Amino acid sequence: MSKAFTKEDDGTENVHLDDLPQSPHPNLVTPSGLAALNGRLGARQSDLAKLREKAEEIDRKLAIAVAQRDIRFLEARISRAILVDPKSHSPRIVAFGAEIEVITEDDSRQSFRIVGEDEADPTHGLIAPYSPLGVALMGAQIGDTVEWQKPTGIVDLEIVAIRYE
């Protein structure tokens, strides 16, 4: 058979990874959350450019595919972003972007801030509006007690302060 009709593995095939799943929720973002997404996108684009300059390596192809997948994900998140200025909300009602101070059942104080999904970090008190705690807090006012459904049971939280940056 002629060599023209055979395919030899020369190692030059590109690796393609499936896209990362996108959240079904509207992509609400704070100004700082949108800036962080744009920063992550810029960093991944820079990483991709550096990877493409390297000599041919097997690991490089996978790294390029990962960077390309991450860039597609971030571009989609940014294109779906709905910028919400927290200062546009009433300081009397918990809404997206609010920092909420609560008193728990054991009289300890905790603070949470409702941010976009990409910015959420529960260990630092940053929660998504679609999380169980976010859902419980949204629409509440100072003096209200809300029920937070946790895996270990329901916790009552009294809203004592609402602030917006």
Q: Please state the structural category.
A: alpha/beta
Shape: elongated
Q: What is the CATH class of the largest domain?
A: Alpha Beta
> Please, how many helices?
3
The helix/strand series, from N terminus to C terminus, equals EHHEEEEHEE
Question: Into how many domains do the coordinates divide?
Answer: 2
- Provide the residue-averaged pLDDT: 88
Helix % is 25-40%
How does CATH name the architecture of the largest domain?
Roll
Summarize the biggest pleated sheet.
5 strands, mixed
Number of strands: 7
Taken as a percent bin, the fraction of beta residues is 15-25%
CATH topology of the largest domain: Chitinase A, domain 3
Distance from first to last alpha carbon: 72 Å
Q: Which parts are unreliable, with pLDDT below 50 for 5 consecutive residues or more?
A: 1-12
Strand order of the largest sheet: 5-4-3-7-6
Give the C-alpha Rg: 23 Å
Task: Say which CATH homologous superfamily of the largest domain is assigned.
Answer: Transcription elongation factor, GreA/GreB, C-terminal domain
